[in-house]
Amino acid sequence: MRQTVRPCPICTSRNNTVLFTQKFVGGLIHNIALCNRCGFVFVNNSPRQTYYAKYYEKMSKYEDTRDFQLHKDCVKIIEQFINKSDRIMDIGCSTGHLLYLLKTDGFKNLSGVDPAPRCKEMAKKKYGITVETNDLFNLKSGTKKYDFLILSAVLEHLDKVTLAIHILGSLINDGGKIFICVPDADNFYRNFEEPFGEFSLEHINFFGKSSLHSLMYEFFPLYVSSDGKAIYSVWQKDGGVRNSMVKYIQLSQSKMDRINRVIDAAPERIIVWGAGSLTERLLSTTNLAQKTIKLADRNTNLQGKKLKGIDIIPPENLENYKEPILVSSFRFKKEILKDIKKLGLKNKIITF
Ligand SMILES: [Zn+2]
Asked: Model pTM?
């Protein structure tokens, strides 16, 4: 058996520490390794995925009653996150028992995918569920996307988990969700029974909650929970921190466009009230500095100092100036407007 060196499937680092080596019949071994970069535990020398694909085709138990309880537990969680009209697909659905439970509860837009050819026929016959015989890595994003994907007891088997999540992410709508259920490696030692029973031939990834978060970093975690045996989780597309930051930057940029228009439209000589970080930023990135003759601020620590060579004066001294006052603060805007009224200043007021 030729076994390939396998880098960390989450962060691609090859720097890992072997915690244990499990031998199997036929000369195959699994090095259970800890990634020294991201902390994921995985088999660092697995054979190619085609080996496992063949293994599953041959060995798949098709219908294991032990899974029935797991499916019930999954469905309880899944149903909190789906609507009756949602387009739902179970990846690695076996004979479709989990989908059948959803069907019984009134969900109609259901389909499944499984690489084992016999599943398709059995799912149709037993549960009336449509199953496509396919490998998830061959799935192509169609015009009609899914609202909800189910990955129950799948990720622990896959060689390329990040690629799998990338492909599945392309199959769902913006705001669509993925349900993931994996054995909870954080708790193997708590449910201890059979020695090394968790190091089976089929399992090459050992997820804890934190490594699941690392894998799903582009998604928003709507639900992550463990019953001690499995982690159940629901992730939303377009909710990851990258998307949140992109939205924040876009919002900021459009607000800056408005601020720039206000500054451009302001007279050539103005007073700026507020010498905080916003003003500091505007003096460096806009043409505010050319128009500002004085800065005013309530903060006595700032009074008497300069920003970009412009004096910061106490607001009380503004009665000597007739120029318009630009209120340069979002946080203290209300207070500044109140202060202007209190001081009886008759200058024209400009706000962002
Ligand atoms: Zn890693």
From this structure: 0.80
Structure tokens at 155: 């990720």
Tens of pLDDT, residues 224-271: 999 999 999 999 998 788 888 999 999 999 999 999 999 999 999 999
CA 67 to centroid of ligand 1, rounded, Å = 30
Q: In what order do the strands lie in the sheet with 325-327?
A: 306-307, 310-313, 292-296, 270-273, 325-327, 349-351
What is the per-residue pLDDT across 311-327, written as a single tens digit (0 to 9) for each?
999 999 999 999 999 99
**How far, in Å, is the centroid of ligand 1 from the Cα of 7?**
8
Token pair recorded at residue 314: 């106490």
Domains of the chain, earliest start first: 61-239 (3.40.50.150), 265-351 (3.40.50.720)
Distance 16 CA to ligand 1 centre (A): 8
Predicted confidence (pLDDT) at residue 53 exceeds the cutoff of 70: no
Q: 146-152 and 88-91: which strand pairing?
A: parallel
Place 58 in a pLDDT band, splitting at 50, 70 and 90: low
Ligand 1 center from residue 149 Cα (angstroms): 25
Give the contacts of 124 (CB within 8 A, at least 6 positions apart).
Answer: 130, 131
Residue 40 per-residue DSSP state = -
Picking from 109, 150, 164, 160, the residue whose alpha carbon sits closest to that of residue 232 is 150
